[in-house]
Design a protein that fits this description.
InterPro entries: CB, DNA_brk_join_enz, Integrase-like_cat_sf, Integrase_catalytic, Integrase_recombinase_N, Integrase_SAM-like_N, Tyrosine_recombinase_XerCD. The chain is mainly alpha-helical and about 290 residues long. Helix content is about 55%, strand content about 5%.
Amino acid sequence: MQETIDHFIDYLMTQKGRSQNTGESYRHDLERCAAFFTASGINTWQEVDQYAVINVIAEMKREDCASTTINRTISSLRQLYRYLLRRHEVQVNPMDYIDLEEVATRKAPVTLSQQEIEQLFAIPDTTTVNGLRDRTLLELMYGTGMLVSELINLKRSQVHFDLQILQLQDNPRHQRIVPLGKIAKEWLARYLRATAGDSSDYVFLNARGGQMTRQGVWKNFKEIVRKSGLSKKITLQTLRHTFTADLLKNGASWQAVQTLLGRETGRESFESYIRFNTQELVTIYRRCHPRA
């Protein structure tokens, strides 16, 4: 079963051009299912029937998994069986009889106001290289919506100041371009000048001159949040949520935001971000409507 998963993930990334993050998400879901099936005495994907899948879903419910997590697993299995059917490796698709779980109303994610952004971003001591690095990280996360994995893997060769873009590439077939805003560009340029003597091609380095890790970024971020005194439950994802919410509130289409985020999802995923007061609606109307 593991060999089939490996071939399927390779197909997604090399033939369908899916990102590394998407591939790892599919892998996580399918390996979890495969472990459950194996423990139940099912050792091939051909042996899986609708009842085996129903048992997986029931087990996930017993583990108190969210409906969104269960639905993602169902979707991963559907994609796998479509792949196996096209290759004539299975004759029957057990997913034909499986429905998605009903999902509770999506809660609006935590986002920050501009005042809170300024309060948070003022914490790093930009007179030091590490403080300048942390401020630049914050500016890029909010200014581009990049993922932490994309930030720590960003290389100097992927920064194009002349075009005001960052060129991100998870694999040879999957590339996306991220616009670089004025403020984020200024901080990034300042940080790169300060670290011009470093031999590494990676942009963000730790105190020892090596590539930063997720854990390192998270550790520094938690300390910045603590010092800011902000009472909201703020995570690294909060900056990406704020990037998304601000674009939508200022009239960007969900399709445009979807492309900027590098996401493969529908409009419903963005609806929870759109919460307007009356003045915000008036402002958007006056800016966006041709007759306003």
